[in-house]
Every structure is written in structure tokens, then in C-alpha cells.
UniProtKB/TrEMBL annotation:
Recorded metabolic or biological pathway in which this protein acts: Purine metabolism; IMP biosynthesis via de novo pathway; IMP from 5-formamido-1-(5-phospho-D-ribosyl)imidazole-4-carboxamide: step 1/1; Purine metabolism; IMP biosynthesis via de novo pathway; 5-formamido-1-(5-phospho-D-ribosyl)imidazole-4-carboxamide from 5-amino-1-(5-phospho-D-ribosyl)imidazole-4-carboxamide (10-formyl THF route): step 1/1
BP GO terms, sorted: 'de novo' IMP biosynthetic process
Encoding gene (name): purH
Source organism of this protein record: Planococcus donghaensis MPA1U2
Keyword rRNA-binding in record: no
Protein name in UniProt: Bifunctional purine biosynthesis protein PurH
Length: 511
């Protein structure tokens, strides 16, 4: 019996060559709609599916292949006597190869002006049904959903007259991954339309971006996956201009730097080590901003990641080139900056579209056996209901410094304390088991620069000991959420030392 292949693709990359080779091998080719027209126009002999089913395409093309004469040919076991008897009885011929890719639903909903009607019409029904039928029956049927697999299939057919069981199973697994991802786009799109925040089932899909040399440590295997519909303002969608591949730790640190630089509109630079900021600076120019970020902690920045929110020019590049950095992230690099920085073989240069307004709707964190989701923490100083709790009001200069501290402290691992002025961080205490411990680290790092500076805390003070430590170091204003049962103790201590203390009503834990 002549072998048959069913070809129906929306992405026609490579399909002509594939069809021509199958034709040379004696396959009867079945097709529908646009694929049939395309192949016929290029001289390939095609049998229309409606010639096989004796039933026309109807409902504007919504029903084409949903027919027993198609799915019987896909699902029949070739070595099952009862199946073969029923096929003969019903005039069904087997289909040996299925090559299908689906209506571009993901690409459709990614358009900013997409309508619900257009999205619905791009939900493929017949395609996934044929793919699933063929993939279920992969013991007998070769099913292809990716043009990248055409060459391997053709090679096996040419050499062995059949694909191997191993290849058919690998391709079937790929099909089910593909249809599962396709359905997840549809389910999430429709769920978003309903406004349901926490559906009873949550299905997320990611695509492999790269395998990594190792994870956090050399004995741990790792890979990096990206969300196809995720934010463009992300490390997952960064353009790497120069340098070797990113590592697992690079990606984590770079993401932390990027989330922090999002906080600033004026020229700003952020330096990160181990997912915590070690220095943040702002200025009139990006070179000035980086100079302050470097001055904030010239020791810890060594081997760190730097994010800048303006193009890296020659002046900034000269500063960056004097120290060892793993990664530099910016909207762009000038030609002079590229020439200077690429002299360092291993440094990674990444560009990201800072003008992108799209943010991911949820942050996700895996735990063993489960997944946590939460909204990103986008709450800033301007969103807070600012209350001055002390007798002394902060000065205008102190308010500017408090804003910077509040923008930074939300990105520091809890317990978090930031000491800063209006232009740069002076000391950062991160991840300690008690708040006064973080404060002591930040104040020790700031040293004499703490005199006249401000302090930011990610959560309330359970006791007045942090205020006491701040006062002795010369801190003049503090910003914190408030809300402790012992707030009055901290207020009284601040009043004792003439410190202005601002409550925001919102905490910024970061675990």
C-alpha cells in the first residue's frame, strides 16, 4: 500500500523541500487550505483531505480534518488484526507521517492591538487533534511539529525506509510538550479575560534559552528557560553584545540589578554582588552616577554586576574598564565604549530596552513540591501615605535622601538597612537575623559619612536599639514602615536625639 503523509502547516519554513523529498520517495501527500495551495503552486502533487473524506471544509475552515477517515488513519495500530479489519470495512487507509504546526495563537495575543475575536479565531482545533492522535500512535506514525526535525526524518527515511522507534518517541514527546504549551497560552489568556487571579490550576510554559555550565555550584546541573510572553525588560530577553555565556549566578545577580535600576528615572548606576546591592549612585550624567556607585563600596564591586539606565559613553566606559566586572547592563553602548570594554575578553555586555513598559504580572518562586506566586513589589515612595512620626520634620534634602534609601532597601535581602545621602548609598546591611545587626553593618560601612545621612529600613523596628545606633552614628532622618507595638519607643528615642522619622505604612521584606 502506498504510504501517505499529511502536511498542514501555518509556518511554511522548509515545507516545500520536505514535501518534494517525500514525493520522490513515493509518498501520497494529503493537505488542506493554504498548505495545499502553496505546494501545488510549487509543482507538488497534492490530494486534498476533502477528497479523502468526501466531506467539504465547512464553517470558514473551522472543520477540515475532524473526520474518522483522517483520525482512523492516524490512530489505527498497524499490527492489530481487529484494527486492520475495521479499517478495511470502513475504507480507511493509514497515514504514516503527520507534519503539522498550529495557528499562531501566541503571536496573535502578543500584538498590542489584538481583539478577543481575532484571538479566538487563532485557536487551532484540528491541528492539535491530529498531532495528539499521531503522537499517541507514535509506535506506527511519525509526527513532526518543528521544521528543525525535517532533515533528521528525511535522512532516516532515505537510509532505512522508516524512522526509528526512538525517533518517533522523541518526536511524540515534543508534540505533547508543544500542544501543552499551546493550550497553556490559551487557558491563561482566557483566564486573564475573566479576571480570575488564582485559578484552581495554574499552567505555565517556558522555552529553553540555554543550558548552563552548572548551577549555583559546579556539582549542580542547570539550565535557563524564558517565558515566551514575558517582559522584554528582562535578562531573559537581553541582547548580549559581548562576552562568554552567562552562568546561573550571573543571571540571578543580573536580574537583581535590573529590578533595582528600574526604580530610577534620573541617571543611575547599581552595583550588585550575590543578589544584594553593594553600591547605588545617581548624578547629572551616567559617568557621575557610576562614580558614586563605585565610591559607595569600591571593595565589594570587584567581580560584580553593574546596571546603568543610560547609554554607556566613553567617559563611563573608561571608569568601568579599570575594574573587574562580570556583567554590564545598559540600554546601549556607544561605539567608543564598545571598543574600550571589549578589550576585556570575559566581560559580558548586555543591552535591554529600558523604554519597555511591560512588566511580568507575577513573580514565581519554586519550593519543593510547589510554587509560590506573588505580584511584583512595585510600591514606591510616591505611593506611600507618608507620616512624619517625630517632632522634627525632615528637610527637603533629607526627603530626597529618604526617597533614594526607600527605593534601594526594597531590593536588599531582609533584614535590610540602607544608609545613604541624596546621591548614593553609604552603607548597606543585608540578610541578618536581627535588624540592629543589619544596622551595625550598614553604619560601620558608612563610617564617618553617616554623619548627617539618612537610614532606610525595610520593616519596622521591634525595639528602639536601631534608632539608638543610628543616632550615635550621626543619622539625621529615618524612613521605615512603622506598625510595631513598640513604635512609640522608637519615636521617643528619635525625638531624644532630634532625628526626623517617617512612616510609610508599607514594608518591603525580601527573602
Amino acid at each position: 500500500m502506498k504510504k501517505r503523509a499529511l502536511l498542514s502547516v501555518s509556518d511554511k519554513s522548509g515545507i516545500l523541500d520536505f514535501a518534494q523529498e517525500l514525493e520522490k520517495m513515493g509518498y501520497e501527500l494529503l493537505s488542506t487550505g493554504g498548505t495545499k495551495k502553496f505546494l501545488e503552486e510549487n509543482g507538488v502533487a497534492i490530494t486534498a483531505v476533502d477528497e479523502v473524506t468526501k466531506f467539504p471544509e465547512i464553517l470558514g475552515g473551522r472543520v477540515k480534518t475532524l473526520h474518522p477517515l483522517v483520525h482512523g488513519g492516524l490512530l489505527a495500530k498497524h499490527d492489530d488484526a481487529e484494527h486492520q479489519s475495521q479499517m478495511a470495512e470502513n475504507g480507511i487507509s493509514p497515514i504514516d507521517i503527520v507534519c503539522v504546526n498550529l495557528y499562531p495563537f501566541r503571536e496573535t495575543i502578543a500584538k498590542p492591538d489584538v481583539t478577543v475575536e481575532d484571538a479566538i479565531e487563532n485557536i487551532d482545533i484540528g491541528g492539535p487533534t491530529m498531532l495528539r492522535s499521531a503522537a499517541k500512535n507514535h509506535a506506527y506514525v511519525t509526527v513532526i511539529v518543528d521544521a528543525a526535525d525535517y532533515a533528521e526524518v528525511l535522512t532516516e527515511l532515505q537510509n532505512e525506509q522508516s524512522t526509528t522507534p526512538e525517533t518517533r518517541r522523541r518526536l511524540a514527546a515534543k508534540v505533547f510538550r508543544h500542544t501543552a504549551a499551546y493550550d497553556s497560552y490559551i487557558s491563561n489568556y482566557l483566564t486573564d479575560l475573566t479576571g480570575e487571579e488564582y485559578p484552581d490550576q495554574l499552567t505555565l510554559t517556558y522555552e529553553l534559552s540555554q543550558t548552563l555550565r552548572y548551577g549555583e555550584n559546579p556539582h549542580q546541573k542547570a539550565a535557563f528557560y524564558r517565558s515566551p510572553l514575558g517582559s522584554n525588560f528582562s535578562i531573559a530577553n537581553a541582547n548580549q553584545v559581548h562576552g562568554k555565556e552567562l552562568s546561573y549566578n550571573n543571571i540571578q545577580d543580573a536580574n537583581a540589578a535590573l529590578q533595582m535600576i528600574k526604580e530610577f528615572k534620573m541617571p543611575a548606576a547599581v552595583a550588585v554582588k550575590h543578589m544584594n546591592p553593594c553600591g547605588v549612585g545617581t548624578g547629572e550624567t551616567i559617568a557621575d552616577a557610576f562614580g558614586k556607585a563605585y565610591e559607595a563600596d569600591s571593595t565589594s564591586i570587584f567581580g560584580g554586576i553593574v546596571a546603568l539606565n543610560r547609554e554607556v559613553d566613553a567617559d563611563t566606559a573608561k571608569q568601568l574598564a579599570t575594574i573587574f566586572l562580570e556583567i554590564i547592563i545598559a540600554p546601549s553602548f556607544s561605539d567608543e565604549a564598545i571598543e574600550l570594554l571589549t578589550q576585556k575578553k570575559n566581560i559580558r555586555l548586555l543591552t535591554i530596552p529600558f523604554d519597555s513598559k511591560v512588566r511580568d504580572k507575577w513573580n514565581t518562586v519554586t519550593v519543593e513540591g510547589g510554587l509560590l506566586i506573588q505580584q511584583p513589589d512595585v510600591f514606591g515612595y510616591d505611593d506611600a501615605d507618608i507620616q512624619v512620626a517625630t517632632e522634627r520634620q525632615p528637610t527637603e534634602a533629607e526627603i530626597e535622601a529618604l526617597k533614594l534609601g526607600w527605593n534601594v532597601v526594597k531590593h536588599v535581602k531582609s533584614n535590610a538597612i540602607v544608609v545613604c545621602n541624596s546621591e548614593m548609598t553609604l552603607g548597606i546591611g543585608a540578610g541578618q537575623m536581627n535588624r540592629v545587626g543589619s544596622a551595625k553593618i550598614a553604619l560601620d560601612q558608612a563610617g564617618s559619612a553617616a554623619e548627617g545621612a539618612v537610614m532606610a529600613s525595610d520593616a519596622f523596628f521591634p525595639m528602639n536599639d536601631t534608632v539608638e545606633a543610628a543616632a550615635k552614628a550621626g543619622i539625621k532622618a529615618i524612613i521605615q514602615p512603622g506598625g510595631s507595638k513598640k513604635d512609640q519607643d522608637s519615636i521617643d528615642k528619635a525625638n531624644e536625639y532630634g532625628i526626623a522619622m517617617v512612616f510609610t505604612g508599607i514594608r518591603h521584606f525580601k527573602h
